[in-house]
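for the writeup, i need someone to sanity check this before i put it in the appendix. the sequnce is what the collaborator sent (i think, or maybe the updated version? ugh). structure was predicted straight from it, no edits. if anything looks off just tell me and ill rerun, i have time this weekend
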Amino acid sequence: MNRRRPFRDPLSALLGQYGLFALLLLALLGGWECAVRLGWVPFFILPAPTAIAGALGRDAGTLLGRHLAATASEAALGFLLSVAGGALLAALMRQYRWLNKALYPFIVVSQTIPLIALSPVFILWFGYAVWSKVAVVFLTAFFPIVVGTYDGLGRGDAGYRELLLTMGAGRWAIFRKVQAPLALPSFFSALKLSVVYSVVGATIGEWLGGTEGLGYFSRRMSGGLQTDAMFAAVFLLSALGVAFFLAVALLETILLRKRKKDYS
């Protein structure tokens, strides 16, 4: 009996964590299927889950090989640029108060402009190439990175900073040894928000001016009232966002565990 415990324990933990979610999801899908089959909901408004699965299988080559790859590359590129630019800007704003006073209001104002209004501007500047969508993704994902990183860097322990100052450490030495490590939880929280927003930004960019991608595909299918194919694209968008989120969460677990071992 003891030999089976290593195999049963992970399964028990998985069921304990996600069992209720799985049951609720199955119940929702079953109710959804029955409502459409019984005619309570028109098919052209909300297709049945089995019809969406059929459309996904029918158009799998186009959806996965062309449109999913395009959306994923746009979202990933815009996200990586926002991480690099946002983290660097947050670090500089935390180190130099005058820079914070000068730029922080502009960063806030940039989020008050609707992306739907900016997408045609980006298309005018960059054309229908990938960079117009990357610009939308960057603007969508940039704000959480800057704010999360900036707030995290401000949570450094004052005692550690004072100790390093008495030992002759400079501003950037304190940043590397105290502020940056202690800011990692806030930084990764911002990353998890930002990586999901990046998929939303890529979809908006494709919807308003694209020739490929899941946003473009769903817009084309909705125009032809092919709602099963449109919902198949929406399902893939959701799956892509979840996959990006889980990748960042895994990276967070690995790095924080490594940091804990280094300091233990």
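Residues 93 and 103 are 8 Å apart (CA to CA). The mean pLDDT is 82.
thx in advance!!
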